[in-house]
Specification:
Number of helices: 5
Order of helices and strands: HHHHH
Number of strands: 0
Largest sheet: none
Structural class: mainly alpha
Shape: globular
Length: about 140
């Protein structure tokens, strides 16, 4: 019995080492790449994008996501709200409103760009497809 257990442990460690080697050989590997690829595939299928539409759609969508991330980083607070004075908290709230206005303006700009690539109906389905994908990932995490 001990031999079988030892053999199983040895085999699993060898498999882990081989997987680590594969990952090390991939120069662009990042832990979230699999999830991002699955997200792209899921949303592309859910929206029913053709290969041409998909290529153009994801190019625009990636730029939007990059700008959205930069916008949010620009408005990140350095201190916890628990440690702020009332004046600092009010200032942070007003800054948050300004960020949300900038984000809305950014969404409008990218809506126009996406509308040149895919019909508005498919753009309208995007938030639902993203929610469904997140729910699917959460279910898989809970299952594992």
């Amino acid at each position: 019995m001990k031999r079988i257990l030892l053999l199983a442990i040895l085999c699993s460690m060898t498999g882990l080492a081989a997987q680590a080697q594969i990952i090390d050989d991939m120069p662009d590997y990042q832990p979230g790449n699999r999830v991002r690829a699955a997200r792209v595939a899921y949303i592309t299928e859910r929206l029913g994008l053709t290969s041409e539409q998909s290529e153009k759609f994801w190019a625009v969508q990636r730029k939007f996501e990059e700008e959205k991330t930069q916008l949010r980083r620009k408005h990140t607070y350095q201190r916890s709200f628990d440690q702020m004075t009332d004046e600092e908290a009010e200032s942070a709230i007003m800054a948050r409103f300004a960020m949300e206005e900038e984000l809305l303006a950014l969404k409008k700009v990218y809506y126009k760009k996406l509308k040149e690539v895919v019909p508005p109906r498919k753009i309208a389905l995007l938030p639902r497809a993203e929610r469904e994908f997140k729910q699917m990932i959460i279910k898989q995490i809970k299952r594992n």
